[in-house]
Amino acid sequence: MTTHPYDALMDITARPKTVFVRGAGSYLWDDSRKRYLDFVQGWAVNCLGHSPPAVADALGAQAKRLLTPSPAFYNEPSLKLAQALVENSAFDQVFFANSGAEANEGAIKLARKFGSVHKGGAFEIISFEGGFHGRTLATMSASGKKAFEPLFEPKVAGFKKARLNDIASVEKLINDNTVAVMLEPIQGESGVWPATDQFLQQLRALTEAHGLLLIFDEIQTGMGRTGKLFHYEHTGIAPDIMTLGKGIGGGVPLAALLATERASCFEHGDQGGTFNGNPIMCAAGLAVLEEVGKPDFLKAVTETGLLLESELQKVSARHGLGGVRGRGLLLALDLKLPIAPGIVAQAFEAGVLLNAPQLDTLRFMPALNVAKAEIAEMIDCLDGILTKAGAARRVA
Q1: What keywords were assigned to this record (predicted)?
Q2: What average pLDDT does the segment 236-252 reach?
Q3: Which backbone phi and psi does 149 adopt, to 5 degrees?
Q4: What angle do CA 387, 393, 395 make, to 5 degrees?
Q5: Which residue positions form the known binding site?
Q6: Which of 164, 141, 118 is nearest to 260 (CA)?
Q7: Which residue from 374, 318, 384 is spatially nearest to 349, judged by alpha carbons?
Q8: In whole angstroms, what is the distance from residue 303 CA to residue 312 CA?
Q9: Are strands 186-187 and 193-194 parallel, antiparallel or unpaired?
Q10: Which residues contribute to the annotated binding site for pyridoxal 5'-phosphate?
Q11: Contacts of 261 (CB under 8 A, 6+ apart)
Q12: Cα separation of 299 and 303, whole Å?
């Protein structure tokens, strides 16, 4: 076992001492050669699994050609990726960023610019209780995460919180200062709570009636995660602004802000970034989009998601747990008890990586090309842990 300099990194979260050194598909290996089945995948980042050949090859080829010429100049991969995203979506223009938080920050800025230009200086954005949009000051302020409330005061003003799937709670917050409504179609961090298709349709009608922008944060749901390339496609409506992150880079730091022509009102100097749209990251994004866009890929995601959902429902029934929430390959299992961290720890020891966004919830975000046998392996591990936990509770 190698000795690692752990203390040199800022201690910002609890981490096991395990150090991962290699990944392939649904598996990771640590420096002791132990193998782990990964159903977290960087929080839905590695949409094609660890180190997919398509992404690795694109990175290597682009690295030999051009890393970055500066954002003051065009580069070929960013132009191609922007065009491909526009052709496959309801949007007209794209701004590339390095993280989901940065893309969401850009969406907030774009909405406020729209309010300044078109709505007499309107600047307030309605977001939602339980929502999560990132860790910049503005995106933390937009988030409805309780743990953020006492942090880094004073927050950025101008965000009011409505309740998910409650259209009346949105309507009563609208005033002359309102410029937009912003939400995740599925709230991931709070435990995988979906907005219903009907609610999203109601939001579209309400925002259009009041001349407001509708912003979808698809950082976690975009790029095929729910069985469509973008989640909004399930609903029959489209937002004015959408943000992408996580899966779009397939494991590298890439994000995007997409907007309709009507919403695109940035002027020169309003937005930028040293590494935004750099060719090496956009080359990875092109490789991801090409794979996810293959004819049968999204159909397979839907089928695999239904299989995982069915298997989780069976586990729930066997152990007297709660429901399964989510869509496609973004799912959660309600444990009904605050035992999720313990299950995650036991699964880790057994070589399976799971995520507990809440004390009573497990979240599942495997690679979009996860195999049926890998789902079975994870289910067997989870079932075994729950069986032991149930026996221990009965003895107690």
Answers
A1: Amino-acid biosynthesis, Aminotransferase, Arginine biosynthesis, Cytoplasm, Pyridoxal phosphate, Transferase
A2: 98
A3: -55, -40
A4: 105
A5: 100-101, 132, 135, 217-220, 274
A6: 118
A7: 384
A8: 14
A9: antiparallel
A10: 100-101, 132, 217-220, 274
A11: 92, 93
A12: 6
The CB density around residue 268, as the number of other CB atoms within 10 Å, is 6
Question: Contact at 8 Å (CB) between 26 and 48?
Answer: no
- CA-closest candidate to residue 291, choices 46, 75, 96: 46
Residues 6+ apart with CB under 8 A from 258: 85, 86, 89, 91, 93, 94, 241, 242, 243, 244
Question: DSSP for 195-247?
Answer: PPHHHHHHHHHHHHHHT-EEEEE-TTTTTTTTSSSSGGGGTT---SEEEE-GG
- pTM to 2 decimal places: 0.96
The Cα 265–Cα 45 span in angstroms is 30
- Binding-site residue ranges for N(2)-acetyl-L-ornithine: 135
Tokens of 296: 């049968």
Strands, E, within 15-115: which ranges? 20-24, 27-30, 35-38, 93-97
Structure token digits, residue 206: 């309400």
Q: Rounded distance, CA 134 to CA 219, Å? A: 10
336: Cα separation from own chain's centroid: 24
pLDDT tens per residue across span 91-147: 999 999 999 999 999 999 999 999 999 999 999 999 999 999 999 999 999 999 999
Distance, in Å, from the CA atom of 167 to the CA atom of 145, rounded to the nearest integer, reads 20
Q: Where are the beta strands (DSSP E) in the chain?
A: 20-24, 27-30, 35-38, 93-97, 124-128, 159-162, 178-183, 186-187, 193-194, 213-217, 241-244, 255-259, 324-327, 330-334, 352-353, 355-358, 361-364
**Nearest of 302, 228, 289, 296 to residue 256 by alpha carbon:** 289
Which pLDDT score is estimated for 396? 35
Kindly report the length of the chain.
396
Can you read off the two tokens belonging to residue 374?
A: 């890998």
**CA angle at 98 for the pair 95 and 103, rounded to the nearest 5°:** 50
Please, which residues have CB within 8 angstroms of residue 198's CB and are 6 or more apart in sequence? none
